[in-house]
Known about the structure:
Blueprint: H1 2-16, H2 27-33, H3 38-49, H4 53-71, H5 80-86, H6 92-103, H7 107-117
Helix pairs in contact: 4-6, 5-6
Amino acid sequence: EKTEQIILYKLKIFEDAEKYINPKVSLQFLAKELDTNTKYLSEIINKKKGQNFNNYINELRINYIIRKLKSEPKYQNYKVSSLAEECGFNSRNTFTLAFKNTLGMSPANFVGFIKKENPVHTSSIV
């Protein structure tokens, strides 16, 4: 129980520091970073976050890029592949799939939606 709390605390620090946007983040990488083993870390993420490791990291990355898209209009002019890279995905397809799973729409549709919602000066600075 105490060990679990320590790992959850370290996960919170990992999340707050936005280290998940590093494309090299893997279960092995994170277990080493948090000073635990992969089996235990995987178990805690499954139990406490309600999802497997990959879905957990993907969701953090998607939420990160959503925040960027909403708060910094320049991101709305990025290509989908650039958005994918920005939040740590190695593949545009994996990013698009994770985005759809998290939000229920494609990144391109989401960007279109934001642009309609907040019609700020959208110059093409990419």
